[in-house]
Amino acid sequence: MSASSNGLNGATRDANAPVTIRTLRAMASRGETFACLAAYDATTARWLERAGVHVLLAGDSAAEVILGLPRTVHMPLEVSIALTAAVKRGAPRTHVMADMPFMSYQASPDDAMTNCGRFLTEGLADSVKIEADASYAPLVDRMTRAGIPVCAHIGSRPQTAALTGGYTSAGRTADEARRIVDDAVALEQAGALLLLVEAVPDEVSRAIITRTTAPLIGIGAGPACHGQILVVHDLLGMTDHPPRFAEPVASLGPAIEQAGRDWVRRVREGSIGGVRYTMREGEAERLSPGQAAPPQRIRSDSEPESVS
Questions:
Q1: Is the predicted pLDDT of residue 6 greater than 60, yes or no?
Q2: Is 176 a catalytic residue?
Q3: What local confidence, expressed as pLDDT, does residue 289 receive?
């Protein structure tokens, strides 16, 4: 498959070379956009690695699209760690980013360090993502000094949606845009190696890029970002109400529904298909009535022998 058909803007990915922070920084410096997706299982991750996707985020959006919960804040920590490890096992050469769930890093720096460590060890993650503003700079500094690669998520932050009454865009006024840019600068200076900005106007993304050097991943943040990410279910047309910035490239939802309908019909008609197993030669006759050997009763050691 050519690089252009892979959507990599002319950049090819060596299927045998692991994608690292260094890889992403080099691509950003060359002006090559890298592709990211949020995914949650080993099978999907395996296919996305084969497709050449550079970064897979084991997102807290799994709370909604995998667990059926109403918001991302409901994502359980233990489940998140397990899903992150599953993604990495499916895509061992892809950069896998763990999405730190709500209250896994906000309560205390010590909790944050412990939970980040679990994502790197148990979860096999290559980096962790936290939703942050400039006030999290001391935590990011402590994390990076401990050797934890951090991606700082700025702009619209779903974990704080309760403060605004739901998911909203960000940076649509000059004052708000300046705050987001200042957040990016402070978090990079604290040690964040990657930045992710969500649901902001193009001007905000461009301003961040002029003030920072860390690769910037965008989601609904315009084409200027060094990387682009979507939830894989949105990309594949499997969500009923995708965000306005997500344009599907497939319609797997209706295809899955039709496959289910076809299976219901085949089961009803008795035409389930596939290869049927057969008994070994002569065994079917032994199963016929009157020819099958009577079952052998096994006497326990404590049972006395019968006396005739």
A1: no
A2: no
A3: 66
Burial class (CB within 10 angstroms; exposed 0-12, middle 13-18, buried 19+) of 119: buried
Which residues, listed in sequence order, are joined to residue 151 by a DSSP beta bridge? Answer: 129, 194
The mean pLDDT of the chain is 92
In a domain, 196, yes or no: yes
Residue 270 lies in a domain: no
Whether the full predicted model's pTM is greater than 0.90, yes or no, is: no
The answer to whether residue 275 is domain-embedded is no
Report residue 35's pLDDT band, with 50, 70 and 90 as the boundaries. very high
What is residue 14's predicted lDDT score, i.e. its pLDDT?
A: 75
122 assigned to some structural domain:
yes
Within 10 Å of residue 67's Cβ, how many Cβ atoms?
13
CA distance 216 to 31: 12
Among the options 198, 281, 285, 305, which is catalytic? Answer: 198
pLDDT band of 70, cuts 50, 70, 90? very high
Range of the domain at 198: 21-235
Q: How many structural domains compose the chain? A: 1
CATH number at residue 128: 3.20.20.60
Alpha carbon distance 278, 192 (integer Å): 61
- In order of 257, 262, 263, 265, 275, the CA distances from 268 in angstroms are 17, 10, 8, 5, 18
Q: Is the pLDDT of residue 301 over 60?
A: no
Q: What is the pLDDT of residue 308?
A: 43
For 301, the token pair is: 């050691």
